[in-house]
Amino acid sequence: xxxxxxxxxxxxxxxxxxxxxANGGVxxxxxxxxxxxxEVLQRERNExxxxxxxxxxxxxxxxxxxDILRRDGATNSEKIEELQREVAQSRxxxxxxxxxxxxxxxDTHVGDLMSExxxxxxxxxxxxxxxxxxxxxxxxxxxxxRDLERKIGVLETEEIEKRNKRIRFEEEMRDKVDEKEEExxxxxxxxxxxxxxxxxx
Length: 201
Hints:
Residues 1-17 form the signal peptide. The chain has helices spanning 4-17, 19-23, 28-71, 77-200. The protein is mostly helical.
């Protein structure tokens, strides 16, 4: 198995090499590659976490051994120095593992953000298309409303003209009826006078 430092360096080179892809925009190919990469990084992260736990256990053992040597007043300074170096190296390895694990978490988070951005962009495009369709429909409705208003205006004008004609016709007929009634009354007067003359005769 590669050392955690080597794994971390490989990961860093991979992240730097992928910067151009990340800056190139969100597309389906990147999403697939990002998902595969995330799975690999998660597996590596799990391995690193396990190795980190092992290293921490080693540190505890070495520290305990070092404490025992100090308590017992051991004079083997070389052993103590060697143990101190091992402890320091183990701590560096643990730190490197923690950094690598954190980087893997960040890369996973970036992948999630990219997926969310892609989904948000798709939703935005769908919303724009929906609004454009609705706007087109509203414009058509507005045209139809204007056409109906125009037709209603024409009908109202025609109705007013018909009503005016009917009123004029009724007035003319009323005048004619009045004239006819006057004529009838005149005939009645003449007929009454004629009857009166006939009776006298």
